[in-house]
């Protein structure tokens, strides 16, 4: 209790009702979690408020944002866990009780959704509860009081818009991005890129003070390269709070303001008062494992993989057996661009029914760099007789350059889509016929296997496509072709992937 209330109790004007209101006001000012609980009847009338630790955790992160301790924050959390109420609706109202001059910009995938959040914030501010407690600090201006934009007399502002919406002339101290992409369009590469472009080229520039302003992204995961995937991959300095519906491993969570710790054991449910194991199992069945993994688990690919399953990935830990045929397999991009397309080149061998992956090169390359990469791989692996090159993109031009220099240049014209070709080789993986080096001795194996498990939802498809091409080519050949090549020690591979 503050010294003010201690002196008030001892005064002749002491009134228990006034004291209780004052204490409740002070508690709400100090704690966003308490503020949300007190404002609940305004937001969800007739609904019982059910507290949970994840609300307190999110509130502490937002408290740190308000205090300038965190300036970039990503929160990934399943739907129906109060993310919008906590972050987009209540947090700005609470921040105004201490800093009414703050200007907020709120962005969602649709104008109607962001407007809905803004209206709820205004409902709180105009409520008798808020007016009675902070009406002396926060007064809305009559001349700027619309659903998508309202201001107070301290020039504080709450402005809402959609991804791609107008922001000309608007600036904010705190930008909140809440569900920037419609889940129904999760598989649209165009929509994902439009969202990222808007964030990168427009929204980030709207901070009044780029050094001290804050950006909060709160969303469910939809794809490896959704907005969360982009900001994390680009290492933009975002604090990342990830809260899956079910803990997939033991996790120690530290609250950023209080310092208290909470342990989530494997299998722990994020909000057991809302979901139990049976209801989550039903959701997984109805949504499908891929959607459930992203939206509920915040991991936009099932743990066991999409097309390729984790249990299918085999390793050789010492030396691979003698191979009857060793080849190179190349997927060549058009140019060294800023996109995600890269050159992928393998050395792969076959021994009887089994395929052994020996080496991988994977990077963004120009035409001349691609030519050099094949020359280098040929010098390193002279027994890789066939150089199988996809007959697309830079493939034909590279082959024209190397055809008279390097023997065994073989054009390969794939049939069907990348996904169809990948599915066609899954029986070999499932049967345990495809082997990779020990990840502890070949550092590139972990990245490659991640690409396989993420396919076709992942960023990098070139590594998968070139490997599928190698498997198709080798399995089309008789199992005993030509003299045995050589045994190869696992882990002697060289690898690079440009970031």
From TrEMBL:
It holds the Pfam family Terminase_6C. Keywords: Viral release from host cell. InterPro entries: Phage_terminase_lsu-like_C, Terminase_6C. The keyword Protein transport does not apply. Residues 329-473 form the Terminase large subunit gp17-like C-terminal domain. The keyword Protein biosynthesis does not apply. This is Terminase.
